[in-house]
Amino acid sequence: MKDFFNNVARYPRYFISFTLGVFFALFGWLKPLLSKPLTAIALFGLVGGTLAFTFFTLQAMLGLSPV
Fold first, then answer.
1. Do 54 and 27 fall within a single domain?
2. Residue 67's Cα: distance from chain center in Å?
3. Residue 36 — left, alpha, or beta (φ > 0 → left; ψ -120 to 50 → alpha)?
């Protein structure tokens, strides 16, 4: 049973390592795009638009509109 709990205790460390690895790889891929002002503005606009779309969609789906 001790081995089971040792194995389960490793999962949070694996999750953190996996998540940091994904963000590191994504940042390495986007780093050349951020060096040019026009593509940086377009990239931030795309990210902001995606977040706004998600926010407003979830707000409408959950009925949280302040009406």
1. no
2. 31
3. beta
- The pLDDT tens digits of the residues spanning 2-61 come to 888 888 889 999 999 999 999 999 999 989 988 999 999 999 999 999 999 999 999 999
Where do we find the tokens 């990239």? Answer: 43
Range of the domain at 9: 1-34
**Band of residue 67 on the pLDDT scale cut at 50, 70, 90:** low
DSSP sequence for 1-16: -HHHHHHHHTHHHHHH
In 1-67 the beta strands, taken as DSSP E runs, fall at none
CA distance linking residue 47 with residue 34, whole number of Å: 13
